[in-house]
User: What shape does this take?
Amino acid sequence: MEQTRLLLAILLTFLVFVAWEFFFSPRPEMTAPPEPAQPTAPAKPAEKPAPPVAEAPAAPSGGSTMPSPAPAAGTGRLITVETPMYTIVLNENEGLIQSLTLKQYRESVAEGAVRKALIDSDKVNNNLRFGFEGGSVPGLDGAVYTLQGGSDQVMVKDKPEQVVLVWTSPSGIEIRKSLTFHPDTYLIGITVQVFNRGTGPIQDKATLAVSRVMDESPSRVVFEGLSGVIDDTLKEIGVGDIEDDEGSAGQIEWVGIVDRYFMSALIPAEKTSARMQVAKGAFNTITNTLVMDAVNIPAGQDQSFSYMAFYGPKNTNLLRAYGHNLAKAINFGWFDFLAKPALWFMNLIYSVIPNYGIAIILLTVMAKIILWPLGNKSYKSMSEMKRMQPLMAEIREKYKDDKKKMNEEMMGLYRTYKINPMGGCLPMLVQLPVFLALYNMLYGAIELRHAPFIGWINDLSSPDRLFSFGFSIPFMEPPYGIPVLTVIMGATMFLQQKMSPPPGDPAQAKIMLFLPLIFTFIFINFPAGLVLYWLVNNILSIAQQYYVQKKYA
Assistant: This one.
């Protein structure tokens, strides 16, 4: 089998992979503003956050683990809490979060863009919905809590502030929900106390839910959906698999919902035996519910339950600082073990040179240096194959009507000149995991979200566009303009192909001729950070290939 056949197979396999991800997978939050805007500084998470300690245990409230209808409007007050990191609006209706926006992140890179909303008040949601799985507290669904003391406008500046909501059932059962907000962390302390002033015991499983409105077909490049850490293992449930999931029980550290850049999570005060229950409701609302083990609260007694909630960015350093294995939510797929060191190195470069475009370039150079010996071996084999082209052409012409004899003569030629026909492709195949790891990392790293590079490239997480056309272009995502990096990258692919030995098969030669054009077409909608990596890698590969060919000419 000729070297070019395997090379073609590798390239086409990668092409199918790329095409599937970017033409059949939606890409949330990749769209840049329709008109060019001045770059804004990339948002940075708070440094060295201190996780709060829940002041008191938290208890669930009546209801099932499935999403409940939105409470009737106008029956409860709204309580607004402002911290340096987010704005949260609570609703006395069922004590839910009405809306939550992050102050350090925005919806787009456009000047004046609104802040990133993790919870949208216009959608049904179940955030911080407390309940009992068996509905043992009648009336808790649809309960209207009452704010205890204080104002409905809470400013969190130099010290933690607490909001206490209380509801009492007709039978005398009191639910006291206390939320503690801190000025320097995305973690919210949650305490629910259940006072049983009824006539009989409460024997049930307490529940607490978190929810998000998600696309029905999330990205396949990085995981988006419901997740949790159970028995020290990350469990992920895609949006399309919710109906088939029967729940997962074990020692739970957190349950939540993740998308490309952000996550919402519920964290028991201690790792505890519980169950993760997932559900899907109206408006594409997905809900992840933490179902605790059964409790028994006799009449005249009370019990408390403690949690923390996290609503914020999927930033590795931030999540590691918070503990509870939250950092496991950042998962770059099969080659995660390669992607995370690459992310660490990219952030290290950024700490010295605060430009993620330059960090990507230097990261690509480092990867190329590490893989340099494999590249040398591959290009040396290609150079030898190129020198053999005249002899191979003679054999093809001589035995064009006898394929078996042609292959025998080819193998004899390889043995005579001690050439491995796979020598050029196998090193490339070994490098493929590195390419895919960087591919996933650069796509999913929140550090690149709205991060500027140079000139017109003001968002490395979105496609680069020079100018803005007043009309749409087929197969191009808005904004519509000139994809400069992509065009240059296509030119480097074409140059690299011209330097490689041509395939002997004319049909293969025609396909190879169109590969740079096909890749350029597909890369049009790639995030600029990914295209920059591929472009720099191509340039370095051309230089290495030129050096090796000159050396063994």
